[in-house]
Amino acid sequence: MKFITFETKDGLTQWGMVQQDGLIQCLGKQQPYSSLLSLIEGGPQALSEIQSGLANKDLPLYNLSEVKIKAPYYPRKNIVCVGKNYKEHALEMSDQDYQAIPEFPVLFTKPYSSIIEHKGSVHSYPEITQELDYEGELAIIIGKKGINISKEEAHEYIFGYSIINDISARDLQKQHLQFFKGKSLDTFAPFGPVIVHRSAVPNPQDLQIKTFVNDEERQNASTKDMLFSIAEIIEVISRGMTVEPGDIIATGTPSGVGKGFKPPKFLKAGDTVRIEIDGIGRLENKVI
Ligand code: MG
Q1: pTM, whole model, 2 decimals?
Q2: Ligand 1 centroid, distance to 7 Cα (angstroms)
Q3: In three state form, how does the secondary structure of the chain look?
């Protein structure tokens, strides 16, 4: 099951399920689930209600190529991000200093206001940053409320998976000591285009992530190389802190970011960044 939020030719925002044939079965009129977030927040009950309604022949169909894809949804809280979660990336960010490999997950957040949709434009802010960078990442979508979740039960708390580009202004990250500002400018979180239900992702720790800038491959790694697994990340984040349906966790980026090259290959206006994750999809955004 691949879920998508989109805008019709009449300017209406709808959500639905992408079928194999490239058609979207529109589910937005199934009350009370008017948005993809309401489906996720509705938990397993909402999902089974929607599934049992799929046979309804009256559901409108839209051609994927004829709608405008929107961000899947805007979460109620900041996106929680894991930094330095791939060894080679931790090393490239710190000139091969092995001390840089974290003992505990590095955590920071990005506000929902930084989210944009597939094909939306990333602003380069040349007056604010000279070190604009990309980070292709697998995103976890939480599907069930919980606290103190053990890694053994973590997968039950996942609704599905998506893609996030954790756009980063490296100079701002450094200037302000914490990552927050340099990661949070408007348009710095391309998200989507779809959310794939966990039932369609048999092993999320064995997915290939690739990032291309203007068709040049920059990142290519497997999620099996994460320092902290998806289950461990959920265990650590939920210690004493409730996670809720719709919360988004970005699981970190592999090596090959612009800052890791010598000389660095930062983004500039006109560049196109494309992130591909096996079985999840392809997220593409242009820098302006
Ligand atoms: Mg990141």
Answers
A1: 0.96
A2: 29
A3: CEEEEEECCCCCEEEEEECCCCEEEECCCCCCCCCHHHHHHCHHHHHHHHHHCCCCCCCCEEEHHHCEECCCCCCCCCEEEEECCEHHHHHHCCCCCHHHCCCCCEEEEECHHHEECCCCEECCCCCCCCCEECCEEEEEEECCCECCCCCCCHHHHEEEEEEEECCEEHHHHHHCCCCHHHHCCCCCEEECCCEEEHHHCCCCCCCEEEEEECCEEEEEEEHHHECCCHHHHHHHHCCCCCECCCCEEECCCCCCCHHHCCCCCCCCCCCEEEEEECCCEEEEEEEC
